[in-house]
Permease (Streptosporangium vulgare), 291 residues
Amino acid sequence: MEEENSGVLAMIERIGSIIVPIGVALYAVLYLGVEQMYGVFNISPQQAGIDQSVLLGRLMGTLILLLLVVVPLLGLVVGLGWLADKVTRGALGKLTAAVRRRPWIAALIAALWCGATYWGLLNLVGDLDVAVMVVVAVGLGVLTFLVPFRLLRRKPVGRAGMKVLTGALTGIGLGFLLILQMITGAIKVQETGQANDLLPFVGFQDQWAVIKNAEDDKPLYEGRWMMLLGESEGTYVFYDCDKLDTFRRPIETTNLGSIQLQPEREAGYKCGTLAEQEQGEQAQAGEGESQ
């Protein structure tokens, strides 16, 4: 009975040694993602009313949802591995054990995995070719992680540190991939006025309203729909989809009417129609003056 309990505790400890650093690193990187997401609209999260407590709640909700997705996937992978081991009559398990007993092979696999975690960063910082990113990821893994990981595998403490480092880099890599999706979603909102499925899960409010004057309750800006990005320090922050403009208005002089959450858009809808029209009028006026 004690052996069974020790086996269960050992398994929980191993899982925790991997999950905890992944979660901590992912949480830290997601904070940068929220800043980048609101940066698309030229504001900071604080200007949209997202302080540390709100941000903590939103990011924890994101991590919980991500965990609900990852846990079944891990269970599926473990189940497929168990099935493959049974089909091969234990050959797969023996192969895995043989790989783990060979420090250079285990260190190489971990090094390549850590190098692959830089894939999200490479996508974020520049538009690189897939072949170039593969070469860079493999080169980073082999040149910077292979020998240190081999040395760490000499002692149990080193192997534990290797797990923590691998988990942290995995969380960072996943975080950068999420940041890329968050930025892509924010750009889509800016261009089409419609958020993707990811943005609501990270706390971005796809909420639209008609702005009215508080004194006479008359619609402003020709009664056009504006996205409410948030509120802070007595001011609303709006995004004008038609003019591709972000602006602020005092709360005491502003009423919100006809509020909609995640409105449906017709096919082919895009933002910036009035901005294009104004640019065209300015160009025609400039041509008229030149003549």
Q: What stands out?
A: The chain is about 65% helix and 10% strand. Residues 1-7 have pLDDT under 50 and may be disordered. Residues 2-192 form one domain.
